[in-house]
Amino acid sequence: MGSGLRRFQDKLAYGLGALCVGVAIVPLASILFEVVRNGVSALSPQFLTSPPGVFGQAGGGIANAIQGTAILLALASAMAVPFGLLSGVYLAEFGDNKYGRTVRFLNDVLTEFPSIVIGILVYSIIVLAMRGFSTIAGAVALAIIMLPIITRTTEESIKIVPSSIRDAAMALGIRRWRATISVVLSTARSGVITGILLAIARVSGETAPLLLTVLGSQFFFNGLSQPIAALPLTIYRDANLPYAFARQQGWGAALVLILMVLGLNIGVRLATRGRYNSLRSRV
Amino acid sequence: MTRTVKEKNSSVRTRSLIRLFERLRQFSTDDFFEISSTLFAAIVVVILALTAVVLTRGSIPAFDAYGISFVFGSDWSAVAGREVYGALPYILGTLVTSAIAMGVGVPISLGIAIFLAEMAPGSIRNPLSQLIEILAAVPSVIYGFWGLLVFRFWIVDLIEKPLSRDFGTIAVFQGTPFGLDILTAGLILAIMIIPTVSSISKEVMMAVPSSQREAAYSIGATRWEVVRIGVLNYSRSGIFGAAILGLGRAVGETMAVTMVIGNAIGPAAFPGSLFQSGQTLSSLIANEFGEANPGSLLLSSLIGLGLILFAFALIINVFAQLMVWKVLRVKGRVE
Fold it and tell me: What are the helix and strand counts (H, E) for chain B?
């Protein structure tokens, strides 16, 4: 009788666990379903290639937002990748001391930091100094969010390079920095690239810091010191407009954004075939 | 003869000089490498320190003008001449929505972690984990858009209307079910923290040595008893850390909340009922930042809200990282 109860408890736990997974998958399924269903009807060549029309009227597209997101991501990557790479190299190669542990710890803290706080930081040091919202401010904010992700993934992918490879390089008589850069780092290359792509995927949907730094725009890119449009900003503004066509445009922009973000994520997963699971779990 | 000795001497000297230079050069490239990467690594420290300084300095005018009542006041008015800003309703809004997110999200996440780490058949473990991780990749603005146009109506029809009909006299269920309120914001946060909390808890459980499980099995435990006795006991502090990390996410999350919470202002934003519009620290910053002029008290007050949020996030994250670290990083090094 006791064993019957225990078996029942076991079954119950199993059922509840499966139920929890189901509960988490329902919203995901609904989001993907609604974005695709409503987004597809908004998509058209004209939607993807023209800027928004006259404010408050139907027509026009999101080409400026797509361009803006691409420019912001390119600039942010150009800033975050060198810093992230070298920080990661430092942590993996020399980081086994008090300073290294502090940096690693603060890096983990920064990864989880509210992105809107980073928006305020960049607003205070760049937007106020330049007397206006600007593309460059937005790129800096996104770079700060990317940095700890790249640092961490670089460190971890260097650490899983077998020490025999480094030993072999050192045995050839080359110097340590040479061994690190040309042998260890290039062995860890696919892990490092995985990290960079995941960081790009993570920031491509960031909205709050952009709201405080680039503001958004109805036009195409107009210089680094000018505001710029971005897909997440378009979605947010469309949500606040009381017109049906704005909803339509919002769904369309959401579809483009989600294709981009999930494309990067799923692409990385397929390309690395789960080799870097440990890198992903915390991004 | 003397000449050749001299020559010999000089060439020896030259050679040793060259060797010295060579060594210096060797030292310097490697040293340069170490020093420069050390400097690059310092950027994280610089960013966090700079954030603390900038937020503190930016909020000084607000604290000067209102003192401690900036934190404990509840009015929010930008009318020129009668400006007054108090953060209390938004602090409470942040705490209440995060509490809902934890109350709903953490048990579900634990169920997912236990199921995926210990119970599910091997063939579906990986696909399901990947699906849950995709939930983390969806941008928060899309959660907000979906929340505003889809999820909100689920909440109204499935939860709020029945509750309001049967229990409408209880304070927390008062108000007209409208869907743009504290409950919807809390539940959307719950969905958003599930991937974080469940994937870290799962990792922590998978780091439990298999001897723990074998010992439990050997005394005849069922699968669930193995989890309860062998795994959960062992990974308690790591799971706690994962939950706190989820709390950190919930506290800082901005866009999804901003789009579904209804954006009340002033005393109306006090979270008295679940069915009432509210406001969090981050949603108010997102809503009002565009209207704040440089040098205004409004801007300083918004930065002050940011400072409070920064303090919350710092305490929560440092605490959580310490908990998770103890389990994952240290264990990883020992293995």
Answer: 15, 2
**Consecutive H or E run containing B85:** strand B84-85
CA distances from A14 to A18, B126, B234 (A): 6, 17, 20
Q: CB-hemisphere CA count at 13 Å for B188?
A: 35
- Residue B335 confidence (pLDDT): 29
Choice between B167 and B21, residue whose per-residue pLDDT is larger? B167
Residue A39 falls within a domain, yes or no?
Answer: no
- Would you call B146 and A6 a contact, using CB atoms and an 8 Å cutoff? no
What's the pLDDT band for B329 if we cut at 50, 70, 90?
low
Contact A17 B120 (CB under 8 A): yes
Residues 6+ apart with CB under 8 A from A281: B133, B199, B200, B203
SS3 category, B179: coil
Q: Which domain holds residue A166?
A: 65-280
Residues of A in contact with B131 (CB under 8 A): 25, 28
Residue B23's closest chain A neighbor by CA? Answer: A175
Higher pLDDT, residue A233 or A57? A233
Q: What is the CATH number of the domain that holds A246?
A: 1.10.3720.10
The total number of structural domains that make up chain A: 1
pLDDT value of residue B333 = 39
pLDDT on residue B321: 82
Interface touch B325/A105, C-beta < 8 Å:
yes
Q: Is residue A72 part of a domain?
A: yes
Residue A26 belongs to a domain: no
Q: Do the domain assignments include residue A234? A: yes
Given an 8 Å threshold on Cβ–Cβ distance, is B55 in contact with A86?
A: no
Distance from CA of B267 to the nearest CA of A (A): 24
Pick B40 or B8 by higher pLDDT.
Answer: B40
* Domain B87-334 of CATH type 1.10.3720.10: yes
- Confidence check: pLDDT of B332 > 50: no
CA dihedral A101→A103→A105→A108, nearest 10 degrees, is: -140
Interface predicted TM-score (ipTM) of this complex, two decimals: 0.91
Q: How far apart are CA B217 and CA B195, in angstroms?
A: 30
Residue to substitute from B24, B25, B33, interface A, most A β-carbons within 10 A: B33
pLDDT exceeds 90 at position B164: no
User: B24, B28, B32, B43: which to substitute to probe chain A, counting the most A Cβ within 10 Å?
Assistant: B43
| C-alpha dist (Å) from residue A203 to A216, B154, B284 | 16, 29, 22
- pLDDT tens digits, residue range B43-79? 999 999 999 999 999 999 999 999 999 999 999 988 8
